[in-house]
Every structure is written in C-alpha cells, then in structure tokens.
Amino acid sequence: xxxxxxxxxxxxxxxxxxxxxxxxxxxTVNPKIFDFLFKQISNENKTIAWHSLWVLEKLSKTxxxxxxxxxxxxxxxxxxxxxxxxIQRLIYTILLRVNLPHNTPTxxxxxxxxxxxxxxxxxxxxxxxxxxxxxxxxxxxDFLQELAxxxxxxxxxxxxxxxxxxxxxxxxxxxxNMNTFK
Length: 182
Description:
The protein has helices spanning 3-11, 17-29, 32-40, 46-60, 69-81, 85-97, 106-117, 123-139, 142-152, 161-173.
C-alpha cells in the first residue's frame, strides 16, 4: 500500500484529533503530503474532503507558509460552491489566518454577507463570515460600512448568544455604539 493509499484509507474512515494531529505532524516533515491533502479537498467523497481540510486547518495554526495565493484562491472557490457547512467552517477558519488575495471575488464576499444574515447558517459560519468581511474591510473600508449596516439590522432576538457577542465585538471595533441604533 502506498503512502497516498494509506492516507486515503485514513481520511475516509472515522478519525479524531489524534489522527488529524498525526497527519499534520507528518505533513510538516514531508511537504508533499500538503499537496496531496490539498488535492483531496475537492474529492467527491465529502468525508475525505472534510478530513483533509481538518488537517489543513490545524496546519494553518502553525504553518501558514504552505498556503500560497493559489491555494487561498482555490479554497475560496470551493467555499463558494460547497453546500457542506463543515467544509465551509474549516475553510473560513483557514481564511481568517491567511492573507487574503487583494482581489477577493465578489461572489465570495456576497456569500459571506448572505451567511451573516441567514438564520439557516450555523453560528460558527455566521461568526467567521462576519470576521472575514471585517478582515476584507480593513483593506477595503467600503465593506466595513456594509458590514456595520448588516450587523445592526440582524434581529438580536433571533441570534444566538455567540453571534450576538461577535456582532457586539465587531461593532465595537468599528467604533459603533449599538445603543444608537435601537
């Protein structure tokens, strides 16, 4: 059995943090594993794609140098098209850590805004989408005003405590007093 076959078998099975960390550590020793894992995030088998992204997300905590602009653009495109919330969450977490391309696609920005406003989006995705838009807005201030407007117009009665906290912290960083808009 080749190393790639071993990885596919592992990624397609039920794994936990112990296995993820083992793959991550092997990736730091053998960078070719990164390329293999990156190719797997487009795998039709969503378990393999998800587990590959899980390893890459852990790797992004300590080894950002692996993520080139080409990689970042590719995962942005995947995040636009995938309906899988687990994959989106892992991609968004990676995107919070890396330098985003100067020309971030409008379709990605629109998807982030849609997810901030959608009650169907998981809390983790709503929060990370808002933080990504804030990050993009730090380079392109036009988005900060739209983000502030979007956050101010989300009904706190229907938001989780986690999203309410993210909303409050972002608006605070944007120096907007929530009481002004009540």
